Amino acid sequence: MLTIDNLSATVADKPILKGLSLNINAGEIHAIMGPNGAGKSTLGYTLGGRPGYEVTGGSVDFDGQDLLALEPHERAATGLFLGFQYPVEIPGVSNLQFLREALNAQRKVHGEEPLSGAAFIKLAKEQAGLLRFDMDMLKRPVNVGFSGGEKKRAEMVQMGILAPKLAILDETDSGLDIDALRICGEGINAIMRGPDKAVLLITHYQRLLDYVKPDFVHVLAGGRIVKSGGAELALQLEEHGYEAVAA
Amino acid sequence: MASLALPTRKDEAYRYADLAALAPLWPLAVQEIRVAAGATDALAITARSDAAEARELLITLEDGASFDLRVLNAGHAYGRIAVTAVLGRGASFHFGAAQLGGGTQTLEIVTEVRHLQPDAVSRQVVRSVLGGQATGTYLGKVHVARGAIGTDGEQSIRAMLLNRTATANARPELEIYADDVKCAHGCAVGELDPQGLFYLQSRGLPPAEAKKLMLHAFIAEAFVGAPDSEALTEAALAGLENLL
Question: Is the dihedral of CA A44, A50, A54, A60 positive or negative?
Answer without folding.
Answer: positive
